Amino acid sequence: VEHAADGESGLDRAVASPFDLIVLDLMLPRMNGLDVLRELRRRGNETPVIVLTARGQVVDKVVGLKLGADDYVTKPFEMMELLARIEAKLGEAAARARAADRYESGAVAIDFRKAEVTRDGRPLDLAAREFQLLRYFIEHRGATLTREELLNEVWGYNAMPSTRTVDVHVAWLRQKLEPTPKHPQYILTVHGLGYKFAG
């Protein structure tokens, strides 16, 4: 557990290293808690935040929640209540992290932590690059991905080798993943642009 006595140093500490949860007082010197919260979320920091304040006005609660607070406790409060809320938020964050480690769609299930892919309960033998490509597709599902982007992000190529590299790996993935590879339902071709994961 770390603490900061004012908003500016609290913000600096919160963005300098990862935390599981932030308990944030709104009445802080140098930078109030709402401004700290606003700046955290503006920078893309999604750490769960429980806001503490002596203010009981509904408007403060609404503003805090709209800025991205995950929970709200009004002073005075019992320590047991605060601890229970902290435990609940940490549990929710852990559940989200576990969910991010798995993906399921139809007959296909993927455990990213174990690097295991199954279809209809049977394991699929994917090469490391095929697994990395599949993971990138899933992380960006619904988006049209160009061959150039896939080469840069999955293979790490800055120079442009033959784009057939992507096509060949997509074909291999389809053979293993798709029920009917000639009529794919997961990895779709977007003609003239690239591919899209539709799972």
What does this structure look like?
This protein is of the alpha+beta class and 199 residues long. Helices cover 43% and strands 20% of the residues. It has seven helices and ten strands. It has helices at residues 7-16, 33-42, 58-66, 79-100, 128-139, 147-155, 164-177; strands at 22-25, 49-53, 71-74, 102-105, 108-111, 116-119, 122-124, 144-146, 187-190, 194-197. It has a four-stranded antiparallel beta sheet. A three-stranded parallel beta sheet has the order 1-2-3, sandwiched between helices. The longest helix is centred in the middle third of the chain and has 22 residues, at 79-100. The model has no long low-confidence stretch (mean pLDDT 86).
